[in-house]
Design brief:
This protein has 50 residues and is mostly helical. It has one helix and no strands.
Length: 50
């Protein structure tokens, strides 16, 4: 029984770290896309206004 509880705790830790890693990756990916889009829009506006 104790072994089962230990395994469950380890599993929970792995899942938590996995989720955190996924969220971090998704946020970084979104941030990169936003920056790239921002640069593209900025260039467009610059070309239109100049």
């Amino acid at each position: 029984m104790n072994q089962l509880i230990k395994n469950a705790k380890t599993f929970k830790t792995i899942i938590t770290f996995g989720l955190l890693a996924s969220i971090t990756t998704i946020c970084f990916w979104l941030f990169t896309i936003t920056v790239k889009l921002g640069e593209a829009v900025g260039e467009l506006i610059f070309h239109i206004t100049h």
